Amino acid sequence: MEELAFTMQLKPGVVAEYQRRHDEIWPELTAALHEAGIRDYSIFLDAASGRLFGVQKRLPGHTADALPGLPVMQRWWAYMADLMDTNADNSPVVTTLTRVFHQE
């Protein structure tokens, strides 16, 4: 399984709302992520900085690269844009991280 780690940035004072929206994640978005081959997805928060750390585990042959073109993904980005740093298309500004150590 492929593993991808990345960071995103919340705006100040929005942690509770970010958590609430994810607690109520849309079933159609969950289904789209699953259909794209994402089998494990976690987001962690550094409360001091508002920095989010995401980890996705993806099946071989996943289609996660097609997610930005889905209407449900575009609606989610628009819904979340007021809470985080975003690009012009409302997608979150993402910094991909490089693994430097792993132990099983």
TrEMBL record:
Q: Which domain of life is it from?
A: Bacteria
Q: Which Gene3D superfamilies match?
A: 3.30.70.100
Which GO molecular function terms does the record list? Answer: L-rhamnose mutarotase activity
Entries under Pfam families matching the protein: rhaM (PF05336)
Q: Does the keyword Cytoplasm apply?
A: yes
Top enzyme category: isomerase
Instruction: Provide the alphabetized UniProt keywords.
Output: Carbohydrate metabolism, Cytoplasm, Isomerase, Rhamnose metabolism
- Does the keyword Glycosyltransferase feature in the UniProt annotation? no
Q: Which EC number(s) does UniProt give?
A: 5.1.3.32
Task: Write down the InterPro entries for this protein, in alphabetical order.
Answer: Dimeric_a/b-barrel, L-rhamnose_mutarotase, Rham/fucose_mutarotase
**Which HAMAP family does the entry mention?**
L_rham_rotase
Designated name of the protein: L-rhamnose mutarotase
Question: What is the source species?
Answer: Hymenobacter bucti
Per UniProt, what is the name of the gene that codes for the protein in this document?
rhaM
